[in-house]
Amino acid sequence: MLRYLSLSACILTLSACTTLSDMPVGTPLSQLQAEFGPPTVACPPQQPQRLVWSQQPYGQYAWGVDINAQQELLQSTQVLSDREFERLSEGDWTQQRVLCHFGPPAEKDYTPYQGVRMLVWSYRYKQSSTWNSLMYVYFGDDGLVKTHHPGPDPFMEPNESEFFAP
Question: pLDDT digits over 50-66, tens only?
Answer without folding.
Answer: 999 999 999 999 999 99
